[in-house]
Fold each of these.
Amino acid sequence: MNHEKALVEEAKKKAALAAVKHVKDSFIVGLGSGSTAAYAIEALGERVKHEKLRLLAVPTSYQAFLLAVKHGIAITTLDEHPEIDVTIDGADQIDAELNLIKGMGAALAREKIVASASKLNIIIADESKKVRVLGENNHPVPVEVLPFAINPVKRKIEALGGKAILREGKGKLGPVITDNGNAIIDAVFGLIGKAAELELKLKMIPGVIETGLFVNFADIAYIGTSSTVEKIERIRHQ
Ligand code: 5RP
């Protein structure tokens, strides 16, 4: 691993370690997806092992499920535990109000469901994820779509001013298929001034299952650098 990459991994780990401190004995924990969330799952596994924490976890993806099993964290479901004490998850972009773009790992639908069932949502990331405005650098909004509706949804996203690209798999020919059996359209809108408005418009398109815009979900973000961790708390507007 080159030096720069090692520093980024260190930053992700630091953010993850800060977040897992919020977890207490007997908690129901939402496990996020992605490389940063993976560090949190590993650190939670360590706490289960050394502090004998009795946790039950709801994974947001097959990746998170396998990591939980690997690190000795017991699994539960939203059917058994519809209320989660704390969820720790990563993000692709984070603005100053803690609005997010998520879903580059294609787990956005379950991530949003788990976040909406959580009393506390903690986001962990390295500092490259912080942006002034969501959509910076033409970052796409991932949109999970019923396969039957791919083309009509693409056309409707384009009518909203976005560029719609069907996400292709790596290591397999053809489109990415999510854990829910759906496709992902990456929708590029440029700078997203009104994320809540865009989110509503996208959700109104028949065939759209979920979008990667997470508005007013995150409560706390831990942003790691190679030497420190910044804590940002969401200001709640009345
Ligand atoms: C998956 C996600 C991830 O949390 C997001 O892509 C961040 O991943 P990473 O920590 O690997 O950068 O939303 O759907």
Amino acid sequence: MLALYPGSFDPITNGHIDLVRRATRLFDRVLVAVAASAAKRPLFSLDERVALAREALAEFPGVTVEGFTSLVVEFARARGAEVIIRGLRAVSDFEYEVQMAAMNRSMAPDIETVYLSPDTAYTFLSSTLIKDIARHGGDVSAYVHPRVREALHARLAAEGGA
Ligand code: ADP
């Protein structure tokens, strides 16, 4: 069975990777689907986010990464995914995630959303926090793949930040 794990991944963190690792134990194949998310004004372009996720997930054989610009349920159907994976870190994620799952189910009743929670070491991790820490010159090496750390430094240095 193929599971789709959609998100902005701006950039991918060790929390996302922890979820992918858990998903590979449950499903034969996992497709990490990087959303264009233009409205969120991402720090990295879609192609950059896809490339970083591919590098960070290179060690997982059944995992592929693709960018997409359509609705999540349309992309899931196009790829033959019957399951959507999402992460629940804390109660604060719950309201938005349940609302989105209900909307997705209303549009695509044949696709199930499955929630996974990360190791407690990652419950406080978010891409937004990682960008803030890097912007202020903090060390993000415990939270992201080395290539992601390099990309953050390069981008933020180019911005005149850290
Ligand atoms: P989105 O813009 O779709 O929320 P994100 O890349 O922020 O995209 O998150 C994608 C999914 O991964 C969401 O379900 C989110 O809850 C989950 N996620 C993000 N960070 C973590 C983490 N540290 N641990 C577990 N799940 C996470």
Amino acid sequence: MHKIDQDKIVILDFGSQYTQLIARRIREIGVLSEIVSCEISPKELLKLNPRGIIFSGGPESVNSKFKPKFNSKILEINRPILGICYGMQLLANQHKGKVDLSAKREFGHSELAFNKNILFKGVNGKKTKIDVWMSHGDKVVKLPKQFKKIASSTNSKIAAFASNDKQRFGVQFHPEVSHTDQGQKILSNFALDICGCKKNWTSKNIIDDLVQNIKDQVGNKHVLLGISGGVDSSVVAALISKAIGKRLHCIFVDNGLLRKDESIQVNRDLKKGLGLKITTVNAEDIFLKKLKGKTDPEEKRKIIGRTFIDVFSKEAKKIKSIDFLAQGTIYPDYIESAGKKGGKAHVIKSHHNVGGLPEKLKFPLVEPLKFLFKDEVRKIGRNLGLPAYLIERHPFPGPGLGVRLLGAIDKSKLEILREADAIFMEELIKQKLYNKISQAYAAFLPVKSVGVVGDARRYEYVIALRAVVTLDFMTANVFPFKQEFLNHVSTRIMNEIDKVSRVVYDISSKPPATIEWE
Ligand code: XMP
């Protein structure tokens, strides 16, 4: 990062489930934010050149021997610091205040009464109270010297504090969650007014910066990219092609497990629309042959993954000039793998569509999206001129319909599933429901059920519809359709597809169910 790197807030992660949310909120203000482990050294932190620092919340107590490691020399860095929840308690503890176990745990909604302070500037007009969201067992019971209380809540006399030199701030509540009234304004006061950041984090600047980075990294060499038809790989393609034009070579593997018209869309919108150089490999027969008779979900996943790598590598070898492999890794995946390498462990489940490819191909990687959240990827995708349907697409798993067609896979069942899924999607879009749902699809159940059409008995398959809303795909709620909508989709599927005699709606939340059926 070049220009936009100059105005940055660095967030030290003490293990809060909301750390990524803090980062997203700061970026929504228009300021770059970066998450690092709380174990970072002062030297490394200074190298990142932050204008301000945020200490996240975390599950431990500052009085516990299991508390996360933290180098207290960081407090000598001459930059404003905002501590949130555990972060506030850490500031209190380090500056010789006192933190104790609270008699009452404060969890959920609370009312905050605040004093006049730069942190609360412009919050709630002339009123001095807001609703906030709390989640803490410990609380600050004695202020450090040179600090003053700037807010209190029902159960915390000191619910926010500030140092007299306006360099240290702490809030016991979570300004990053949407349940806190005007939390964004509080974060914006910190980032813009206290730290003096400029709003440089805009789609245009991000694109300019990423394109320049790609040019610097790739020079006059060539890049290979696997296109899946999803948001991330399409945005990567658009970016790299903007940077190096025809030296980007894309391979699109049609594994026979794609949704209806997927191949047509890729060729229409990416090949023709964006002028990308795309080789489409029709590998349906290879995949279906390998999957023949296989019913175990994990075995199916592995076969699909391995076959993809084989087919892709074989095709890649035909292109002589490749020097780099591009990947659509985004920030949450990147943080997770950094976490595994030694930072705080984030237990975030992620699936990688093309896992194993970099090891097999051994090219250096180009990963232009690795500092972006999904909503930012979508925003720059729009800016790069990708079609709206592609940008707003629900995630589609790497193994595709392979994990949505339960049991053994064959071409005729895939055809039934594809048609049912297409009807469901068409209706979701028509009734303007698609963008209210995080992920929706049809699954094929390998059981037969009796139905009747006219006077004739029909003994055919069952289609299950699934639609969930979720923020992070770790937990998910079922989308509450109106009954008429489900009736309509079900009638269409049974009328239009002979081989379906019954449609069911999956009403399982995650957990305990997963989003995919297999
Ligand atoms: P589950 O079913 O685990 O899904 O609740 C969570 C999210 O991950 C997607 N998913 C996959 N993505 N390869 C992928 O690329 C996979 O093997 C895979 N399995 C699940 C799923 O679609 C949902 O978005």
Amino acid sequence: MNKLKSYLVNLCRALLAITFIFSGFVKSIDPLGTQYKIGDYLEALGLAGQIPDWIQLLASVTLSGIEFVLGVLILLAIRRRMVSKITLVFMIFMTGVTLWLTIGNPIQDCGCFGDALHLSNAQTFGKNVVLLIAAFIVMRWPLYQVRFISKTNQWIATYFTIIFILVASALSLYHLPIFDFRPYFIGQNIQKGMEMPPGAKETQYKTTFICVKDGVQKEFDENNYPYDDSTWVFQDTKQEIIEQGYEPPIHDFSITDAKTGQDLTQDILSKKGYTFLLVSPHLEMAEVKNFGDINSIYDYAKANGYGFYGLTASTERGINHWRNATGAKYPFYTTDGTTLKTMIRSNPGLLLLYKGTIINKWGHNDLPTPEELNAPLSLLSIGHEPENNTWLKILMIVLCYILPLILLIVADRIWAWTKWVKKKEEWVKEKEQSNKLYQLLKHKRQMRKKIVAGNWKMNETLQEGVALAKEINEVLKADKPNCDVIICTPFIHLASVAQVLDKNLVGLGAENCADKEKGAYTGEVSAAMVKSTGAEYVILGHSERRQYYGETAEILKEKVLLALANGLKVIFCCGETLEEREANKQNEVVKAELVNSVFNLTEDEWKNIIIAYEPIWAIGTGKTATSDQAEEMLAYIRSIIAEKYGKEIAEETSILYGGSCKASNAPELFSKPNIDGGLIGGASLKAADFKGIIDAWKK
Ligand code: PEP
């Protein structure tokens, strides 16, 4: 579906681009022609003579240029969203204008394609409806337009196009249009251009006569005209085309002597030799600066026996104005103003005819100089019809505009491609690096010790304890664990239990030790004494000791230091109360416990620390923290360890979860990436339950 949309959008976009480029270009290279067409529109709107010529010319250059630039922007998909909106607005306006032309017929030819292509008003309207639909489709999905040039370099193509079309317009205005699409092109025989091919049908008109009698207006045709009734007074005629016949390319050319009314068309067109025609639709507005050249061309023509006539639509006053301004001695005859504007886009302009065929044309800025006219025309190159140089002109446009634009696009594509390749390389590198980091972290996690530690608390007599230890030892001997197993017993069990445990299978730890080294502390057991039983671990900071025996952060700090100093590994507990969690203070509380009791340790000392997070509300209550809650807290603890000791040490630290951990919930808890095992209370008092939890590491 998306592919189909993309095809449709790009097809519509191509249609719009080609039309806009073509119509914009042919009008831009004929700025005067477009200005005349604007004049026709103003006349149809009743605004004739109200807008100065220079504004019309400016509008002609601007509008045609905008159309061309818009076409190129659509073609290259530059500023896709904005351009598609402008195009739609443009097409809505143009379709409205051509609908008006089709209904009202105020102008015969809309002038959409200048003189390059003539369409009837109905055809133009049909064309615009199609383009309007295309513009709507492109506007609806502008981003489906395939880009030919990257965003960064679009401005180069845009400015280059604007400069190109303005220069093309200026050159066409200063000289003559680059391409001549009118019927008075070089090589055209005017007489032949007026001929009807044999058998061609002439256009059929219907003439209606409007007469008035007693204030009543009535229309008559040739058949019922009241020739015999003189009370009907003739007022006006109307002419309608009944059937369009063949229209010769030149159908409105005539030369008349205004003074005598004599038609000189045939005389002039059938002259055997050369004839110069100085063409000026309005002599009052003609450029006078090159009159010297014109006069010398006239003198040259006279001296060589060539004809030289001025053709104008101006009245006697205008002719006299010109004569006074330039000293012109050549005769002036009358030709229709529109015909003269069609003959040459220059006021004045010069045509050279040979036997009625146009063999050369000059704008007033390019008239042949007296130095050039140094021999009879038959001996000069200007006296011969030049070779058709249309292909040369096309080649020039290709070299000056299309080729640089293509090179720009190619360079841009290469640039964009290298950028893309570089980005891809960087992306691959980044991915590799993050993969490496991920592998490292995974490795570290695999390397990190997985631990299941039991905390018997104040349970079991000496005999019961030894029996339980023996049983655990046996069970694990029979089925080797996948993790480190530790049992932490009351002091009185330590020495005896140490005797029954296989050190390689089960580690032994105490549940507490004194905060003093030794001496008169009745009832206390020092870290050194614990170590001497064969125990390797000690639980410190358990919430029950903090709660019931008033162990503060300061006391725990001392205990930790003494335990480490005596070669014990510390399982340091931390965790929040229910109220603290409900107040969302768990992170704050846990951080304070660690900061105040163990974050004073050196990196070396830290290597003998195991952290056990035990939310107080989950200890012995049967209420486990969810695996997500536990994971979230353990990840947080690892992050603050990383802040303190660095990422590597944090990754190596084993962090356990404790609180109603059982064989049933251990697998889920231990599956979390930051949970390295559990500190088990109640469930460590039965070998089978304890083993069930240990086996969670096998799943
Ligand atoms: C404990 O006291 O360390 C503990 C985790 O207890 P229980 O497993 O019984 O909740």
